[in-house]
Amino acid sequence: MQTATDMAPAADDTLERILIVDDDQGIRDLVSEFLGRHGYEVETAADGVEMERALARKAADLVVLDVMMPGEGGLSLCRKLSRPGGPAIIMLSAMGEEVDRIVGLELGADHYVPKPCNPRELLARVRSVLRRRREPRGEDGLSATCEFNGWRLDLVRHELRSPEGAMVNLSSGQFSLLRAFVERPQRVLTRDQLLEFARGPLSDAFDRAIDVQVSRLRRKLQDNAEGEDLIRTVRNEGYLFTPRVTRTS
Question: Which of 5, 8, 57, 85 pairs with 195 at a CA distance of 20 to 30 A?
Fold first, then answer.
């Protein structure tokens, strides 16, 4: 393994840390050098074993993860990484089938970038994902904690608690989607709006991915909502988050 900051006299703990996981050394070298020149601390790993060793040494803010690798594949690794408080994930793969992209996003990836990609495009997506994770407040000044129908969503810790106080596990994509809803309650949001609010203006996702995420998120909210539909489908328009949201500090 190698680090793009190897030549620096000392690591800067204020830099956001990115881990590149790809079995292609040429891609690892190119991406790590480019991101390192743009202000990130970057480390690389050739497979899942090296990835776990790197994360055990130091947590990463974002993992750029290849799908097709020897040994454990990227989708399986994405599932492991996608947990409350885990790193952001950008999937990088030559596989362009719609089903593969849906699976990657549903497992918790924040973006899915096809190979070959322009390093500047990847940099823009890295910046977009990390910027959203740094901002505990919404674009309209939303407080760090939101409550609706007894549910409590902590935007800083990325935690959702049921009315009974139980922790509800959300993938990174599901959290971003729920945040988009609670920031804009009781108004119809189109699929395109949800894509931009949840994944940013550079998202290359598509309608089907949003439908899958909404379906999974709706089921998790209904488990403790006594059958009440908190996310309503509005025919030919989009989705409506029905409860009133209270903003707290």
Answer: 85
